[in-house]
Hints:
With 294 residues, the chain is α+β, with helices and mostly antiparallel strands. It has 3 domains: 9-73, no CATH class; 93-160, no CATH class; 174-292, no CATH class. The protein is built from 9 helices and 11 strands. It has a 4-stranded antiparallel sheet. Strands 8-11-10-9 form a 4-stranded antiparallel sheet. Helix 3 packs antiparallel against helix 4 (141-157).
Amino acid sequence: MSETKSPTKRDEVLSSDDAPKPGADVSFPYDRMTVEQFRKRFPRARWSDVRKAWFVPGRTAPRRIGRWLAELEAEADAHADAKGRDAFVFEPIDSPYLQLGKAGFRIRTPYSKTVVDELREVPFSQWDGDLRLWHVPFRSYEDLRHRWPAIEAAARRNEPEERRRRAEERKGTEQEMRSRLRSAERKRHRYPLAGLDLPPIGRPVAVSYGIVVFTEITGELADPGIVADFYPSVTEDHVWGYWRVPTLEELVRTWPAKTPPAEDATWWLPTIEELRPARRAARSREAKSSAKMP
Length: 294
């Protein structure tokens, strides 16, 4: 005699012949108002404790659920935008670099790596390459306001007049001379490496001033005086390694290191925090190169 099983909660969504009913599951964080909206929109929906989700019957359920979730997200965004706009009215940012738009803020500044890095951290910010400005929605106002002092200070430092003034002040000084020498050394595309700890050839690795790809290690001893002037972290006898800038494809293929480098490392495998800005810079270089092509 066969054993008779009592019905389980999963049986709520099965037909009499145990074939699954057409429909779809949906789950979302509990909120009384959201549940009420959901029940009003889907009166035939039933909660399943087994799957911890609502089951909406019907062959068109996935499409109807997707449409409802999109409307819910748009409603939340509209509420967040209204809240951000009210915050701006109550405590506005008064700056020549920020303009009010229909859907948010338009930010145009002189180029500054600090500005770019700060704005990339603002949620939902977008760069408009055609208009040469940043778009930030109202919903991100609190994040933007928090970062604005650093953004405006960096923008003012990079105004053409301010840069010319600093350049005039540096003329003929030891600081200018050392800056020129550092630039000339960087253009030689060489780097001192420990003879017993050489990096792989043709693979992106990180050094003190960024990610590079070493193309050749000649065995030529690095001049101790040059090393002391331009590479103060290097303390032992080293040889010159010659490098080039990595391509975007090489950077995308590079798997990030799981651990940070040792304190005395001459080179190391790049971390994800180092790869992300390097990839953005490579993408920008390649886009500019493509734009120049006929």
